[in-house]
Automatic annotation (TrEMBL):
Protein name, UniProt field: NAD(P)-binding domain-containing protein
UniProt keyword annotations, A-Z: Membrane, Transmembrane, Transmembrane helix
Region (Disordered) location: 1-22
Membrane-spanning intervals of the chain: 481-499
Transmembrane helix among keywords: yes
Naturally occurring in which organism (per UniProt): Microbacterium lemovicicum
Annotated NAD(P)-binding domain residues: 31-139
MF GO annotations: protein-containing complex binding
Membrane recorded as keyword: yes
InterPro entries in the record: ComplexI_NDUFA9_subunit (IPR051207), DUF2867 (IPR021295), NAD(P)-bd_dom (IPR016040), NAD(P)-bd_dom_sf (IPR036291)
Upper taxonomic lineage: Bacteria, Bacillati, Actinomycetota, Actinomycetes, Micrococcales
Domain of life: Bacteria
Amino acid sequence: MVDTSAPTGREETLRAVPRPDGTSPRALVLGATGYIGGRLVPRLLAAGYRVRVLARDASRVANHEWGNRVEVTEGVAEDAEAMAAAVEDVDVLYYLVHSMAAGKAFESADQTAARTVATAAAAASVGRIIYLGGLHPDDAPLSAHLRSRVEVGDIFLRSGVPSLVLQAGVVIGSGSASFEMVRHLTEVLPYMPAPKWVRNHIQPIAVRDVMHYLLGAARVPADVNTAVDIGGPDVLRYGQMMNGYAVEAGLKQRGIAALPVLTPRLASHWVNLVTPIPAALARPLVESLQNDCVMKDHDVDGLIPPPEQGLTPYRQAVKLALGRIREDEVETSWQDADVLGAPSDPLASDPEWAGRTVYTDARSTETSAPPESLWHVIQAIGGENGWYSSPVLWAIRGWMDKLVGGVGLARGRRSRGRLMVGDALDFWRVEAIEPGSLLRLRAEMKVPGTAWLELRATPTPTGSRYDQRAIFFPLGLAGRLYWLAVLPFHGFIFSGMAARITAAAEQRTDAAAGGAAPDDAAAVAAEKAEAAA
């Protein structure tokens, strides 16, 4: 749950300062559905700000707990018209947009978006721009992604709008890409041949402290226009971060050998294969570790005092993150970011398919389980619960996707028990949910076409009916050949899914009727279904 309790003591400096007319100031957040933005928005609301967000898809905002408490402007940062509407009557603008997973033209795209935002903000007399950039050395060549962050910060500092660029290093928190990379590398590998950058010094920062600085940035004096470094209290080698994680996770210390032959490209592929982090995201993360990245000074303390309780030590940040994961309270995740190149258009209605090549695999099964039991199994699918059929075939498909640069099956899900539109679900993305009746997933694996999977629960006089439909729109000859190649496996995968999902719903119903707790019943049902697979 989000902590929205009132600040006390020094934390009062984070509260919104009312406008001269007594109204609350308005904050515009770009990147509100991302890892940092999704955590910042509820804290801005708790601090007394009116919040507006710019989002490509308003439905993704609406599904957040805070979705009905913010204004939404649909559009993207590169769209001058959308930005002109978004910045109207705005006091402070948070720019939390990064193209870490973008293609080769990301630097140009970054600069275009930043200039569009800066121009719109200046024209609307926005009071302040706050940008979360990257911690970096001044005397060494930078990776393309770090260089791009510096360039974006410079654009805002030259915009004529007072700007504060917060340059942060590795962010540690449940669901952050950096934390997940450390977590999976440490847990999977008892001994790790690693690039020489494991010896570099890094200054990680807890996500809660990033929130502190972002909130405090809105309160700095109006004449401040500068970039400052932010970081936690510990300076560590990357290898020390991994072994610090091991201690908090109850694992043995890991042996780490620094090898000079592992280039950033090779290392990013290694990270891609060993962790859920896809290659497109792993590479900029790895590249950012090529140099020592520590704070050059503590000038930020003169603008934003540290939290009253002090900055969070690295191992404490790891402990807090692990606690969130155990309690299934991961607030936001790196998975929330859109996947570059993955289809984003929603599934068209059936009548619109007329005249198009489309392949479907439809299954329907009657069950004595009530619709609520069936829905419970449907909405818990994927991640640790699996896909209720042929786990080996699903695993092979996930590895194949990883090998060609896709997200793979290990991406999992943010929450074990909850889903909302926009959530990642292994190599799917939740496109639509009608609670109790429909879950529609859009494929984000690498395929020559676009694919969806629909799961439905419909009440019947004797229980419910489970409807399952896989839909594939092929792209050219490659798409048609792909469908024909996987068709033999559909009989194992999709028929097994239908049978075992309904069986799990019935087992859950029987267990609940026998006095078991609903959650225990669900676990038993899932365990039996996986064993049967």
